[in-house]
Amino acid sequence: MRRYGGAAIPMQQSLAKAPEGIRYLVGNREILEHMERSIPKKPFADDVLDFLNEVSRAVMADPRARQYSDVVTFAFWIRKGSTSKLREQYIQKDGNIRLGRGVAFHIAPSNVPVNYAYSLVTGLLCGNANVVRIPSKAFPQVEIINNAIQKVLDLDAYRHMQDYICLIRYGREQAINDYLSQICDVRVIWGGDGTIAEIRKSPLKPRAGEITFADRFSIAVIDSGAYMSLADKHRTAEDFYNDTYFSDQNACTSPRIVVWTGSKIAEAKQIFWEELHAVVARKYQFQSIQAVNKLTSAYLLAATHSGITVVPHADNLIVRCVLQTLPEDLMDCKDNSGYFFEYDCADIMELRTLCNDTRCQTVACIGDTEMLKPLLETGVKGIDRVVPVGKTMDFDLVWDGYQLCERMTRILRLS
Amino acid sequence: MSLDNFLSIAPYSLGHEEKEKLLTNRLLEQTTHHREKCPEYARILDAVGFDAAQVTTPADIPFLPVRLFKELSLKSIGDDEIVKTMTSSGTSGQAVSRIYLDRETSSNQQKTMVKIVSDFTGSTRMPMIILDCPSVVKDRKMFSARGAGILGFSIFGSKRIYALNDEMQLDVEGLQEFLEKYSNQPILLFGFTFMVWQHFYQELVRLREQGVVFDLSNGILIHGGGWKKLVNESVSQEEFHRRLQDVCGLHHIHDYYGMVEQTGCIYMQCEYGHLHASIFSDVIMRRPIDFGVCEVGEPGIIQVVSSIPESYPGHSLLTEDEGILLGEDDCPCGRKGKYFKINGRLKNAEIRGCSDTYAAKFG
Predict the structure, then answer these.
(1) How far apart are CA B234 and CA A311, in angstroms?
(2) 3-class DSSP assignment, residue B318
(3) Rounded Cα–Cα distance for residues B111 and B115 (Å)
(4) pLDDT at A46
(5) Contact: A112, B353; criterion CB under 8 Å
(6) CB nearest to A316's CB, from B49, B291, B358
(7) For residues A124 and A76, what is the distance between their CA atoms, to the nearest angstrom?
(8) Do residues B214 and B204 touch, judged by C-beta distance below 8 A?
């Protein structure tokens, strides 16, 4: 009467019972309890790529999917064409064997709808069985993706994949964190410092590893000359909107400061913010309290630092604080929902303190990234990636400075 | 100029133009004073490029979000001049506002409040029932919003009794004695809206079931502090009034709007259910999208200005409440000035983002 598929394995020691209080959106209690016995796969195994390709098709077949750009982007990323490229890129041809580590336990952030799905797919691509705590909020995106996964898992051809996926919801029960942390071989914690501290109260097995996505901030560096020569500045505004307002400027990847370089700063600034304003006014769902919050943040910064200019705007959609210098505690003063620091930079090395902060994650750039090289080569503690404006949210298997494939697989050394 | 000019004028006697002129001058004077004395305030005005010469109405004075007083110690006096520190009544774990008072500002708060409240209760003092417990006002240097309200209103009481003991239980015998002694004359009752409901009204309902009935038909109840908790219990203002009248005959009931950041300048509710701005202060409803000034009838974020604060830069504040201006100078009660109503607190933002509230939920 085994509901779960996979090969028959002789009975080992008895399995711990999963605690009460877990809601299974995909998978069930039996699958979860047997997950420790799932067989690790090789990274980028053919059946996983085929499975994901089917899921991609199922997602796109859902008429609701088109409304959600994040869902479409995800569906696109898991097509076989895309995952095969990843395989080319990440498979090591050194003669050693690589295998998934076993069970991956993912805690997804509660307010980014699709992040859980990227975490799951990364775990699958690396050959692991995955139990994912998904956002408690009822995002339509979650429903669309989960439906698609379930549909494909119900097909005969992919029934064996059932052992590798449990998507669950639960509240704040430490007993459940404890249980999942005990059965996993790698734990993936999204959701920032607070969540990490909470989940770390639950011990891991001695050999288990952990990937933590801590609180981070990101910055934008724009070469004014390069910006002025862009043909489609409206497109750039849309890109920057996606980097910031699309996630309420509150993702770790959202730039909090715009640093201007080059010789056309004044004219570039004016057009850049005007163009952005037009996009924000059209797209952004503004909440009254955000006006109060951003004013509070701007005044707090101004009250406690000298030389701040709060730039006058016709409305509260964009709040900008221009800085004369870059204070060390700047990022303790950050806010979201369209609140920007702005700094005119004469020498890229002026950014060193800001970027030497381990919390500094992404540099969104317009212009030649070579301009950043002198800064990067000083050995900064921050900056994990430099990407063009518009690409800050693009998921990649190198994330937050981690090679995720390396973290989620094991090497069988053959010499 | 000082507050004395205001104190010689009846609090609801000035029409729009006269009041605006008086208030603009005073607010400008306060703005200049705080810019000189409070460095944080000065830096804020510098950051927005404030120019006093451009000011023609109270709406032109910059406003500070009230939350700044939770994050910063803002004062325009030396530490040796502080006679009282008042704190807002934040729920546990929340940061509280800290408001520093010197002798002058503290005394002006009291004088202003007397002028405002007397307009509703008459100037004779009355026996007074405080619907709270005595321990709220024990520390005379540090005041919570509740303590400050009680002390402020106590001045209207000729004789005073606390209705609750420190265990928040109704002192039934003490109350009975008090009411017997002062029967057939007006009695002032004061308390915070939620306390009145939770520890007074509900107790009276319970006592009535046991056959103990209080007659407060001579009472005048003044209550404030907000409806948030009662809204959660689905008690409307109308129901609050009806149920109190039903249980003890109390029918003179005035809500007021006020905050610890502008103590003294309270907004009393008239017989027609409207909150009124006196000459000492004003409300300006602001559009969330651009902080433009709302029309009559248009909901907005409430800005409050007050002629009182000299010891801290709190003369122009942006609250986190939403209200609607109902009119100006033409309330049927005859009082001049703006009258308005409160819709409640602004909704908390729902913000996306990677760093989540998971840990907070564990709490």
Answers:
(1) 43
(2) strand
(3) 6
(4) 97
(5) yes
(6) B291
(7) 16
(8) yes
> Are A391 and A109 a contacting pair, CB within 8 Å?
no
Q: What whole-number distance in Å separates Cα of residue A414 and Cα of residue B2?
A: 88
- pTM, two decimals, is 0.92
Report yes or no: A131 and A184 within 8 Å, Cβ to Cβ: yes
Q: Flag whether residue B344 sits within 8 Å of chain A, measured between CB atoms.
A: no
Distance CA B198, CA B131 (A): 10
| Cβ within 8 Å of residue B42, ≥6 positions away | B34, B35, B36
Tokens encoding A147: 């439906």
Nearest CA in chain B to A253: B354
- Name all domains of chain B by residue range, CATH numbers in brackets: 4-362 (3.40.50.12780)
Please list, residue by residue across A1-30, b when 16 or more beta carbons sit within 10 angstroms of its beta carbon and e when fewer do: eeebebeeeeeeeeeeebbeebebbbbebb
Amino acid at B262: Q
Smallest CA–CA distance, residue A4 to chain B, in Å, is 31
Question: What is the identity of the amino acid at A348?
Answer: I
User: What residues does B190 pair with on adjacent strands?
Assistant: B130, B222
pLDDT digits (tens, 9 = 90+) for A251-271: 999 999 999 999 999 999 999
- Counted residue by residue, chain A has a size of 415
Contact A112 B64 (CB under 8 A): no
Does B288 contact A at CB distance below 8 Å?
Answer: yes
Instruction: From chain A, pick out residues whose CB is under 8 angstroms from the CB of B356.
Output: 109-111, 191-192, 194-195
pLDDT band with cut points at 50, 70 and 90 for residue B93: low
Cα atoms in the 13 Å half-sphere on the side-chain side of B348: 3
CA dihedral A199, A203, A209, A212 (to 10 degrees): 20
Number of helices (H), then strands (E), belonging to chain B: the values are 12, 15
